[in-house]
Each structure stands twice: as C-alpha cells, then as structure tokens.
Design goal:
Layout (H helix, E strand, L loop, with lengths): L2 E2 L2 H6 L3 H6 L6 H14 L11 E7 L12 H13 L3 E7 L5 H11 L5 E2 L10 H5 L18 H6 L1 E2 L2 E2 L2 E13 H6 L12 H10 L13 E3 L11 H6 L17 H15 L13 H9 L6 E7 L1 H8 L7 E4 L22 E10 L5 H14 L2 H11 L2 E2 L2 H5 L7 H10 L2 E3 L6 H16 L5 H18 L3
Parallel strand pairs: 1-3, 2-3, 8-9, 11-13
Antiparallel strand pairs: 4-11, 5-6, 7-9, 7-10, 7-11, 7-12
Length: 471
C-alpha cells in the first residue's frame, strides 16, 4: 500500500505540547528527521527484514490531474511497482523542487537519507564531491538498456567513468522562428530545422526590414539577452566546438579560436550586419521575449529560448501561434563540430538532464529493490508518459520512437534537438565561474569589448576560482 507522507501531515502528528514549544523558525532538520522517522515507524511502513522491504522515495510535483493532484503520476508508478513486488512498500515524501537540495542537506545532517530521489549531478544537485565521498550508489549493473540512453544524458550522470544515476528527461535551448514573418519575407525555414551559419545569416538579413516605409528598421532577424544562469548564447559557441572548461574541469577553455570566432560572428550580426535588434546582449529578458512573442509587436523573427517557451506560446493568449523550432546553426564550412573539433552528425545545444539517484545502501537486498524502483521510474514507458502528460523530453531513444509528441511538431522537433543537449560543467564553483564569463560575453555583444578581449578577460577572472577549488 502506497504511503504519501508530507511534511505538513507529519507536523500534525507531533504532540500538541511539542508543537507549541517549537519556535516559529524551527529547523528544517528537525522536520526532515521527523518525517523520515514517521515514514519508518507508521504501521505497515516498517523497514521489514527480508523478503519484505520499505523504500523511501522523494519526488517533486508534475502536471495536475483533474483534482489538482500534481503527484498522481508518481503515485500511479508506485502502485504499479508494488503490485509487481508484493513484499515491497514505497513511502512517498513529496518535496517542492526548489526545496530538494535543502532537504538533502538536512537529511544528511540527520542521518536519514532517502533511498531514491530525483537529483541531477551538478553544482545545484548532488555534487561531484558527494559522489566521490560515496553518497550515491553506482548504477551501471542495474540500469536497463544503457545504450538506449542519449549519450549526453548518460554523460550527465557519469563521474570518473562510472554511471551514478538513471536519466529520465532532458531540457535545452532551441531557436524559435516566427513563421508569419518568414512567410511575409518569402524566407524558407531551414529544412528539418537544421542550417549552417551562412543559411542562418542569410535568413537574418532577409528578415530585417522596414515594414512601414519610413526609412527605419522595424523588424530584425535575431535577438537574445545575456544574464547569469541563462545560456541562450552559449550553444553558438558550443556548436563551433568550444567548451568553457576542460574535461577535467581544471582549465578555462572559452578563449579558444573556435569560441572567439563564434562570439565574433554574433557581434558582427549586431554591429556589422545590423540584423539583430539593438537590445541584443542586454539583460532585458521580458523585453526580448515580447519582441518575438507579442502578437501585436512581432519585431524579431528568430530568438533562442529554453524549451519552456514552447509551452508558453502554446497555452497563453496574446502571443504568436504560428511558430517553428530549429537547431542552432552549424559553424561556417561545416555541418557541425563536436567538443574536440571533430565532425558531428547532430545539432549541438546546451541543457540539462534530470533523473533519479539511489543513495548509499548497506543491505544488498534493499539496494537491489531501490535500483529496480529507480529503473522503473525512468523506463521507456515512464518516459513516454512524462512526455505525453508533462511535455518532458525523453532521455531514451526508445521513448522518442514511440512518437509521444504526435501532432505537436514544435515539441517533436525540440525533443530531437534536446536529445543531444550537453549539461554544463559540474564544477563546485560553477555559479561564480559562469557569472564572470557571462559578464564578458555581454560586453562583447554590447560592443564594449572585442570578442577575443572579452573571452581572454573572462579566463583571467576565472583562473583564481579554478586554482582555489578542486572539482
């Protein structure tokens, strides 16, 4: 029988006197410890000796059912799993996504880790240091059909050559196209959503025009913004084969010839070609989005966004509805380039992979059951369900082959692009490193510095962080 245990319900179980004695800002550590303690002592929820076992599962909210329940999907998966494992009980602890990392810290302090939880391996999820300290269980021997996974999704959960998680969904950046503007100017969208830089540049030129005949440009081919934590610009550099850090995370590498050339092309698009909106490079996220999406404005034809923007355009009023999706352009003279400069056959973008991890287990039997649960939650059928209900892009090719986005061409094309999204470097000081790099990229796109100077200055600013920390 599935147990659904919330912090709120756990708190109501506290003796009234104890609740009254708690200070108004009671430690989350106490709450976490109590939740897990209750999970392990409720009737029917004991950690049973073999062959029975209770597994504690954390998960976050997803799409609501007709009653507004945003945990219905994981509840149904638990029921299915328990039906096929009669001696297993799964206790669900629902956690808001933004609280996950804090909950983990408190659970570690309390010595009450969950068995399975939805974490990535990054500066904001489980860290490299925690992986190397043995917080997680390696999953290589337990995951089904690992060759079915996106190589980039697999890489996102791989540390020191070992796989530490079960990839489930992916997200990433794509180019959104205003197809009405393309039609107005007689510009053909890129076939299959793929194009070279030369084709992209030609389209941006043609889509930059004076609509009302007053001698002033009213519509531009391209626009984007630069802001810490947002990576719409970065796939242009990645597509050229550039990466911000070396594979061992020890050296800054965004000052390579490929990175400089890619950033120069973007700067030239703004200042030489004048085919990008003058707001390009600013931090004005809302303004940039409205230039593209506002049905009354439609002043920009092509903008890069994370895949959430597709949901927004599909569901909100007052925004354009006739839009398409394309990959970032491959660099000049090549169909694309991989991280080592080799020819690549797929579009390159930047994104993230989400999934489940299994925390360290002392008992082999419990370990096996926890692994089975994590594998089931990330199976082909589970990923298909998440794609259909949640528009989450699968990390398994077999789930994409089931055509979960049939009749939804924007999602379908985005899913193919995002299937190859590379995760950002999991450096422990990544937020600081990225902020310094973004500042210099912004200066280049605002015309304050040349691309070479900006990326070199970024390297000098980042160097002390790399020297003072060990990934």
């Amino acid at each position: 029988m599935l147990r659904h245990l919330s912090i709120a319900s756990a708190m109501t179980s506290l003796p009234r006197l104890a609740r009254r004695r708690l200070p108004s800002r009671a430690s989350l550590a106490l709450v976490v410890a109590f939740v897990l303690a209750v999970a392990l002592t409720l009737p029917g929820c004991l950690r049973l000796g073999r062959p029975g076992v209770t597994i504690v599962l954390w998960d976050g909210p997803r799409w609501p059912d007709e009653t507004g329940n945003r945990y219905h999907w994981v509840q149904s998966k638990i029921e299915e799993f328990e039906a096929s494992h009669p001696f297993v009980e799964v206790v669900l602890v629902p956690v808001e996504w933004e609280d996950l990392r804090g909950m983990l810290d408190e659970a570690k302090n309390a010595g009450q880790l969950p068995d399975v939880a939805p974490f990535d391996i990054s500066a904001g999820g489980v860290t490299l240091e925690e992986v190397r300290e043995g917080l997680l269980e390696p999953v290589e021997s337990f995951i089904s059909a690992p060759d079915d996974l996106s190589p980039q999704a697999r890489a996102a959960y791989t540390v020191d050559g070992t796989l530490w998680g079960f990839p489930a969904t992916m997200t990433g950046h794509v180019l959104l196209l205003n197809l009405d503007l393309f039609a107005e100017r007689g510009v053909e969208p890129p076939p299959g959503g793929r194009w070279t830089w030369e084709e992209f540049l030609s389209a941006c030129r043609a889509l930059t025009f004076d609509r009302d005949g007053d001698g002033e440009t009213d519509v531009w081919g391209f626009a984007t913004y630069v802001l810490p934590g947002y990576y719409e610009v970065w796939p242009f550099l990645y597509a050229a084969g550039a990466r911000p850090l070396s594979e061992d995370l020890q050296a800054y590498t965004f000052d390579s010839e490929a990175a400089v050339a890619a950033l120069e092309r973007l700067a030239d698009l703004i200042f030489e070609e004048e085919a990008a909106h003058p707001s390009t490079g600013t931090a004005s996220v809302g303004t940039i989005f409205d230039l593209f999406a506002d049905a009354e404005r439609q002043e920009v034809a092509i903008e890069p966004w994370s895949a959430w923007a597709i949901d927004y355009l599909m569901t909100q009023d007052g925004v354009i509805k006739n839009f398409g999706v394309a990959a970032y352009p491959f660099p000049p003279g090549a169909s694309s380039a991989g991280p080592s400069g080799e020819a690549a056959t797929q579009p390159v973008t930047v994104g993230a992979t989400a999934g489940f991890v299994v925390f360290r287990q002392e008992d082999p039997h419990r370990r096996g059951v926890a692994m089975e649960l994590a594998d089931y939650l990330t199976s082909t059928s589970s990923q298909y369900e998440l794609a259909r209900g949640y528009h989450a892009f699968p990390a398994r090719r077999s789930a994409l082959d089931l055509d979960p986005f049939a009749g939804e061409p924007a999602y379908e094309r985005a899913a193919e692009i995002v299937f190859h999204a590379e995760s950002l470097p999991p450096h422990p000081r990544w937020p600081e490193i990225e902020r310094l790099i973004q500042r210099q990229i912004q200066m280049a796109l605002l015309g304050i510095k040349k691309a070479s100077e900006a990326l070199q200055d970024a390297g000098e600013a980042v160097a002390p962080l790399l020297e003072d920390s060990e990934p």
